[in-house]
Amino acid sequence: MDATDRIEICLRDIIEGHDLQACPPRLKQAVVSAVFPGGARIRPRICLAVAEACAEERSEAADLAAASIELLHCGSLVHDDLPCFDDSPLRRGRASVHQAFGERLAVLAGDALIVLAFQALMRSAATAPGRLPDLIRIISRSVGMHQGIIAGQAWECEQTVDRVNYQQLKTGSLFAAATAAGAAIAGADTQAWWALGERIGSAYQVVDDILDVAGKTEAIGKPIGQDEARGHPSAVKDLGLQGARQHFQELMSGITDAIPPCPGRDHLRDRILEESNQLLPRAMAEHAA
Question: Which of 31, 61, 183, 184 lies 20 to 30 Å from 23 when distance is taken between CA atoms?
């Protein structure tokens, strides 16, 4: 079973494993719509790849940690799409949760996914109790008001914002949680892995900035031109398309060099390079050149 299949099975087990009979039906529908069908699942796949590189055998604890990060990501997208933020009618090529179920249920669905992520994480205590404190510390940090996605979202409410800091919090923090959690599951030191995840998140955000200008709605599954319309900081705005593309390539070179020593370092490097080739489609690269 490959990583994507493991993640999908774990996510369905988490959501369907609760007493859904007691859940308001439309809230359940909104939560399911926010999670399935998923996007690239890049954050949980990175988490599992790091755990494997650090010699962690396939385990339920690793799957649960990876799935919890994906649930937090999905919850953040639901909130990000709300009328009070980006007011996006589309997500992953379909109606966003607030568009399909209304704003009230979208707020509740996003909240529910955050809680569900930590409920899932607690299940890892059954098989890896010694790893749980580190996992809670890492993942809660990535969503908090100081160094996480909540802080990143809140910077949109300020008059002035530093692009690098804003994007590091809003995007990089969950990538950092993915790499650090993968290392924690394997009992490895997490600090260097956190820094690696931040670098990956920076590269991913640059691609998102490029696609927001040069992509197509039908290809990326959400409206384009949102950074300009909402006044969000953007690498393209600061560097231009060509400069943003060059910055992406520089970030990717730094990422492969920054992988900490581990048994599966070479294989992980190859997987990261493979992911990078999929992040920036050839058409976008040529457009930016």
Answer: 61
